[in-house]
Amino acid sequence: MMITKKAINDDIAFIVATLKHKEVTIPSFFSCAAPGLAVMLGMILWQGFVAYPLTYHDKMSKLFAQGSIGFSFFLGFIIFFVLTNMQGKYLALPSDIREQSLVVKLVKRKSMIYTGIWIAVNVFAGVLIKILAFPVMISCGMQLVSLVFISLISTVDLGRYDLAVFSSVIKAWRDGDKLDPEQLERLDI
Fold first, then answer.
1. By the 8 A CB rule, do 36 and 83 touch?
2. d(C-alpha 89, C-alpha 72), whole Å
C-alpha cells in the first residue's frame, strides 16, 4: 500500500476534526483485556500440548514441561500487558476514526499480519518439536526469539511512518486545525 504525505495530512486533519466533535470513550477493562487473555491462555495451552510427551513421562521431562509452561505463562503475561494497553487506546478512539482513518487501518492491518506470522512460526515450531521429539525448551526459545525478531521488524516497518505522521500533527497544530470543506464532508458536519 502506497501512502503519500498528502494522504497522511488529510488523515491527521480528519482525526483532529473528529476528536473535536466526537467524545472519546473509556472502554471497559474486560474489552481491553480480552485479546491479551486469549493470547496468554492460548500460549499456555499450546505449550502444554507441545511440552508433555505422548508416551513416556519421566521426572525430568515433567520438570522441563512445567518449566516451559511457566516460561510461556511469563511471556504471555508480558504480551497480555502490551495488548491490553494497545487495545485500550484503540477502543478509546471514536468509531469513525477506527473505521475510516488511513493510519489506524494501516497499523491495525500490519499488526494483524505480524501477529499471524508469529503464531504461524510458533505453531510450526511446536509441531516439529512434537514430531521430532526435540527438547521442549527449544519451543520456549523459539517463542522468545520469534517474538523479539518480529517485534524489531514491525518497529522498523511502522517507524517509517512516524516522521510523516509527527510532522502532519505539528502542521495541523500550527495551522490551528483549519479544515477545508472536503474534510468537513467526510465528517458529515
1. yes
2. 26
